[in-house]
Amino acid sequence: MSEQIILPDAVYTDDRGRIISLPSFAVAGATVIESFAGAVRGNHYHLNESHLMYVVSGLMIYIEEGLDKHLAVTEVGPGQSVVSPPGVSHCTVFAEDTVFLALSDWDRKGDNYENEVVRVSPMEVRPEVAEHLTGIDRLILPPAHLRKTT
């Protein structure tokens, strides 16, 4: 399970600003994702893809489900990363407006992303996660086309 926060390899600062060297990761694509406070993303796993999520600003709560069905919950803040390996169910809840960079080792263009994703039941509603979501006023539901119908 990916319960461990990954810090940048190095940060170089001078009077012009900063250069942040992200952890080594094989990259086939990079995406900048902006999420509003209360937004929920994920609730899926990838058949083959692994991705590193680096938080630029804000606060992301990363939820991951192990093979034993136990949930691990990690708060990921600015300058921190977490990796979602293939086959591991995960979701993110945003405690505040957040910008993060997703580095993927899989080509996400066209239908590649949707063909690679397997949806799972919402992890953020499970009782063991509630204490980690204290202070988030409301969760924003995913778009209608992504909601499971019962």
Topology as H/E string? EEEEEEEEEEHE
Tell me about the largest β-sheet. Answer: 5 strands, antiparallel
**Order of strands across the widest beta sheet?**
7-6-9-4-11
Mean pLDDT: 88
Computed structural class: mainly beta
| Principal-axis shape | globular
Number of helices: 1
**Percentage of residues in helical conformation:** under 10%
Query: How many strands appear in the DSSP assignment?
Result: 11
Radius of gyration equals 15 Å
Note the gap between the termini: 30 Å
Describe this structure in words.
- With 150 residues, the protein is mainly β.
- It is 3% helix and 42% strand.
- The chain has one helix at 112-116, and strands spanning 10-14, 17-21, 29-35, 40-46, 51-57, 60-65, 71-76, 81-84, 89-94, 98-104, 117-119.
- The strands form three sheets. It has a five-stranded antiparallel sheet with strand order 7-6-9-4-11.
- Strand 1 (10-14) and strand 2 form a beta hairpin.
- The relative contact order is 0.27.
Keywords:
single chain; 150 residues; mainly beta; five-stranded antiparallel sheet; four-stranded antiparallel sheet; 1 helix; 42% strand; globular
